[in-house]
Write a structure and sequence with these properties.
Helix content is 81%, strand content 0%. With 98 residues, the protein is an all-alpha fold. The protein starts with a helix and ends with a helix.
């Protein structure tokens, strides 16, 4: 059985991929970059949280913001948008398994 900590590590990997894609995408807006950076910061914080449930909820909220920002950014490439959406989906799935 996968633990919450293991799920969070998997999610963090997806978020790190999304952050790397956003940072490399010259069409990504500063807003998208900031929102995905915050998503990554929340993932780092969640990894060491004592209250994993609260951390997952906070991380999902940051993921929701990243998803909306990626969908609204008209300059971002499809592959970058997809990376952000995959990261969002990963935290949604992890939350559903709590």
């Amino acid at each position: 059985m996968t633990t919450v900590a293991e799920r969070l590590r998997e999610v963090r990997s997806k978020i790190d991929d999304a952050l790397g894609a956003v940072r490399k995408d010259s069409g990504a807006s500063p807003v998208l970059t900031a929102v995905v950076s915050e998503f990554a910061a929340k993932a780092e914080k969640a990894a060491g949280a004592d209250d994993e449930r609260a951390a997952v909820i906070e991380l999902e909220q940051a993921g929701d913001s990243a998803k909306v920002a990626a969908e609204a950014d008209t300059g971002v490439t499809d592959s970058t948008r997809d990376a952000v959406l995959e990261a969002h989906l990963a935290i949604c799935i992890a939350k559903s398994k709590l």
